[in-house]
Amino acid sequence: MYRSLSILAILIMLIGAETARALEMAGVSIHGFASTGYLKSDHNNFLLSSEDGSFEFNEVGINFKTTITENMNVGLQLYSFDLGDLGNNEIKLDWAFLDYEWKEWLGVRAGKVKAPYGLYNESQDYDMLRTAILLPNSVYNKYQRETIISIQGMTLYGKIPLSAAGKLQYDICLGTSEITNDGGLAKSLTTRGIEFESGTMEYLAGSRLTWFTPLKGLKLAVNYFLFGLDYMGTLYYDISLGAGLILKKPIDVGFTMDNPYIYIFSIEYDFGKLTMAAEYYYMDSDTWIDFDYSEIGIPFRAPFKMSLHTSGYYGLVSYRINSWMELGTYYSIYYQVQDQHYDDVMHGMKDLAISTRFDINESWLIKAEVHFFGGVGQLTDVDNPDMSYEPKWTLFAIKTTFNF
User: Fold this and answer.
1) Distance CA 34, CA 32 (A)
2) For residue 401, which of 18, 31, 37 has the smallest C-alpha distance?
3) pLDDT, tens digit, for every residue of 295-323?
4) pLDDT band at 1 (very low <50, low <70, confident <90, very high)
5) What is the set of domains in the chain, with CATH numbers?
6) Model-level pTM?
């Protein structure tokens, strides 16, 4: 289980600072990180078997970048993680692209490119760039990392000066994203007895417009994403044969999301030692669900439409006290309304997080964090098979990260 992680971790350690500087001189920039952590909750399992406490919370990454010509460079990142039954320390190509910047106002990246999603998607793996261990799950759902961290396609980008009004930056992406049967999205969709079988992200188109205002450190952004997602599941139907015998027969269940879209509105103010940020997320989708009963001898299909509206938002503050200590907190709210039905406990989740970061040196840090949750709207039935959810619960996290 740990073989892939060990290989990549040893590679990072062997490179070391001196080798990295030598490769910098040769025109290749190498950066890497390795982290391990522990999660423990008093009730409910979140992301992994947190009620029992789990060390299956680690990640390792190494990236390479080099310049080909004055306006062209290439880069890639290898990434491995373990989050309970996700990842299992398998090394994957996280992103790899060719970047050509023709002018300041027009550039293009092609390959497996990072998705311009919110303020922190492109940097969510780089633990050293923030105070919190876990980003607010209302906007950066940990189960959806595989589908939002990067897309296979291309991105157009550029910056447009606005004179005294600051500068505008645009990012436009088009492509598709991978959905694996053992990934986080599949896990979150396995619910209410329906097992995830396969999924296809037919397309993903997105844009982000960021305004760097004249006030130093203040920026505002707006995102819009449109995507097409189809997936298949299996529901097992119990047929009684008498004498206590039960025959399980599969029912195929097809899901087609009808032009779902996402909005994200963001604001960040970075003023010296103080950082404040807030984001609002909204997704609207109509999903056609088709039950095929032919496997149980009933030549009947029963398609119906389910409307789902999901919202999430948070406010964040962090402050660096000195060169080795930083404090932070955020309050995050998530909720979903399904066919006009909303339950504050089962369809929503509030999260008050308090974080502490200690920088041992430039390359090594330790973090501790506590979350006070209300609601269980983003928990999965896979992690909580008995579905005996507690509405109010607490999660403790600790994490250490090495980077160069």
Assistant:
1) 7
2) 37
3) 655 555 567 677 778 999 999 999 999 99
4) very low
5) 99-403 (2.40.160.10)
6) 0.88
